[in-house]
Amino acid sequence: xxxxxxxxxxxxxxxxxxxxxxxxxxxxxxxxxxxxxxxxxxxxxxxxxxxxxxxxxxxxxxxxxxxxxxxxxxxxxxxxxxxxxxxxxxxxxxxxxxxxxxxxxxxxxxxxxxxxxxxxxxxxxxxxxxxxxxxxxxxxxxxxxxxxxxxxxxxxxxxxxxxxxxxxxxxxxxxxxxxxxxxxxxxxxxxxxxxxxxx
Length: 199
Hints:
Layout: E1 2-3, H1 5-14, H2 21-29, E2 33-34, H3 55-58, E3 61-67, H4 69-77, H5 83-92, E4 95-104, H6 113-122, E5 128-136, E6 141-150, E7 153-163, E8 166-174
Antiparallel strand pairs: 1-2, 3-4, 4-8, 5-6, 6-7, 7-8
């Protein structure tokens, strides 16, 4: 076990999807430890995400991405040869799925909070390890970051961030190199973060 610079990158780049940069810095401070990837391991099954029927019509902004292994391979084939796209190809080569659900609303709690919480409960299953959990009762916000680690290898990532007017769920399945995970930003529907998150 050691202090993980890759995980610091992970927290900085993905936690702010639905939260402020200040909270992301707090997550970095609260950062724990991670076993560095050493060997491949079978990835967990993708999270069972609710249909969230009708939310896109209510939301001021929504992102829904469902890429299983076959669709992900097809998407990778459409990437070009720029340095960023080549790097994204390399990261995606070990993945078997990318799933994103992100909704922003003009009113508080316009989404079914119980359905988001039901996704969180799936992460209590064996194999998932909590890395970061932040609760702000004043702002009614929550951030959870979980990793699936087997035989010293990270093979699954789940991020759930919610606050009154927005929530984001990111589930990446497959062999994950945390040091290179940021290469997926803006590709395959993985949220692209503000410049502040990249500093």
